Amino acid sequence: RQPPEPPPSQWRKLLAVAFGPQIAAWRGQAPLAHVFWGQGVFVSVALILVYVDALYRHDQITEQVMLTLFQVYSIWVLVAIWRCAANAKPPWGVIARLLTIAWAVNTMLIAGFLQLDLLFR
């Protein structure tokens, strides 16, 4: 018989409240539409807008930070969308997974070329 688990710490409770939607999305337990549009499209557009602002201001440090953040975030959100698509009603799960593949390829290409541009400036 295993000893009972200790109650969650205050920090764990705070993190669960603050990042509950992201945790649910990562586990594939969130509604697909919320993850795809809210955490996927909306957040990605916001990150891109910050990058474009840095580009126009010629702020290469912010460009590099945002490009890296966008790549890391894209990996996270694409995995979350893929997992949440498993619970979606047909045909939305399949459509989301096909769009996820296209989104991943597009992100790799664009981020790769933007990274090369930053390196050679």
Describe the fold and architecture.
- The N and C termini lie far apart (63 Å).
- The protein has five helices and no strands.
- It has helices at 10-18, 20-26, 32-57, 60-85, 92-119.
Write the layout of secondary structure elements.
Blueprint: H1 10-18, H2 20-26, H3 32-57, H4 60-85, H5 92-119
Proportion of β residues? under 5%
- The helix count comes to 5
Using the alpha-carbon principal axes, give the shape: globular
Q: How many β-strands, per DSSP?
A: 0
Give the ordered list of helices and strands: HHHHH
Rg calc: 18 Å
Distance between the termini: 63 Å
Low-confidence stretches: none
Helical fraction: over 70%
Mean pLDDT: 95
SS-based structural class? Answer: mainly alpha
Largest sheet: none
In short:
The protein has five helices and no strands. The protein has 121 residues and is an all-alpha fold.
Features:
121 residues; mainly alpha; 5 helices
